[in-house]
Amino acid sequence: MSNHFITIIGLAAAFCTTISFLPQAIKTIQTKNTSGISLSMYSLFSFGTLLWFLYGILTSDLPVSIANGITLVFACIILVYKVKYK
Q: Does domain 3-84 have CATH number 1.10.260.40?
């Protein structure tokens, strides 16, 4: 397989997993209801996503960098709302 094709697969996977956080972020922003969200889970997830983002940057892996950078933003929005509207 060519590197170009592999990158396209990575970008498609990144798009799917990243966009999956958008409905939760929108719902949390609109309702400010975070009762069903685990603070410890989102804290650990956000930290792990930050590490994946850094890994993607350090290895010049575009799909990993993009996906985790955007996912980190969505996860942090949800995390901030969880702390703010506890």
A: no
